[in-house]
Amino acid sequence: METKELYREILNEHNINPGHKIPMDSPTLTLQGVNPSCGDNIVLNLKVQDGIITDGSFTGSGCAVSQASTDMMLDLVIGKSKEDALRYGEIFMGMIQGTATEDQIAELDEAAALQDIARMPARVKCAVLGWRTMKEMLGLGTATAAGTESHCNI
């Protein structure tokens, strides 16, 4: 299968049938991410226990790229430590910026299919919305307890 075709297939599957686009009861952390340049808007919810992300979901609306990328991210980070999730976030950003190695990109599993987004500047902010929201939530400690949302504008 050609790379572009594989990219479209993975993107479409996560956009049409997102496994994590559902409301969450009692998340540990909640943060809203907004891409004002195109209107993508997500609310990311994570359950974290003893430093491990035990569950995650998102709600909101946006283009296929933002929705699929967020769903892929959650596939990758659920069951991982906060530190591993942040490392994946750094690798994803490095992939988009062209600084990640092939071995690092391979760690991203299906999210590696978004590597060509770097060649589509108008889509970069869409692809990184969920990842930046997660990084802000976990890395900077600015996410709030469920019920009171903060905003992450990119």
Describe this structure in words.
The protein has 154 residues and is α+β, with helices and mostly antiparallel strands. 44% of the residues lie in helices and 19% in strands. The protein is built from 5 helices and 4 strands. It has a 4-stranded mixed beta sheet with strand order 3-2-1-4, with helices on one face. The N and C termini lie far apart (34 Å). Mean pLDDT is 88; it is low at 142-152.
Record keyword descriptors for this entry.
154 residues, alpha+beta, 4-stranded mixed β-sheet, 5 helices, disordered C terminus
In short:
This protein is α+β, with helices and mostly antiparallel strands and 154 residues long. The chain has helices at 3-16, 64-77, 82-97, 102-106, 121-139; strands spanning 29-35, 40-49, 52-61, 151-153.
State the end-to-end distance.
34 Å
Spans of at least 5 consecutive residues whose pLDDT stays below 50 are: 142-152
The main β sheet shows up as: 4 strands, mixed
Q: Overall mean pLDDT score?
A: 88
What is the overall silhouette? globular
Architecture blueprint of SSEs:
Layout: H1 3-16, E1 29-35, E2 40-49, E3 52-61, H2 64-77, H3 82-97, H4 102-106, H5 121-139, E4 151-153
Parallel strand pairs: 1-4
Antiparallel strand pairs: 1-2, 2-3
Helix pairs in contact: 1-2, 2-5, 3-5
